[in-house]
Write a structure and sequence with these properties.
single chain, about 80 residues, alpha+beta, two-stranded antiparallel ribbon, about 20% strand
């Protein structure tokens, strides 16, 4: 797997710690990881937008409605950033 994809997957992983009682008065700590698929997808889409942003140029003809490719990608995938 690509190193950048691994980094994005790590960013999309929520890590939590919790405590629980074991024998008698002993307290133990556990750890839980939860992968957020939606966050991972948003990170990938944003990464793609960041890559193409420097190369994007406004292209429109008089009288035509124009939606910039980056804005179109954001709307298509529901990215709010």
């Amino acid at each position: 797997m690509n190193e950048r994809i691994k980094q994005l997957a790590e960013q999309a992983t929520i890590k939590t710690s919790y405590q629980y009682q074991t024998w008698g008065d002993r307290i133990a700590t556990g750890h839980k990881e939860q992968f957020d698929k939606a966050k991972f997808a948003e990170l990938i889409v944003q990464e793609c937008i960041d890559i193409i942003a420097p190369y994007s140029v406004r292209m429109s003809r008089p009288g035509e409605e124009y939606l910039h490719p980056i804005q179109e990608i954001k709307e298509h995938f529901g990215v709010k950033k």
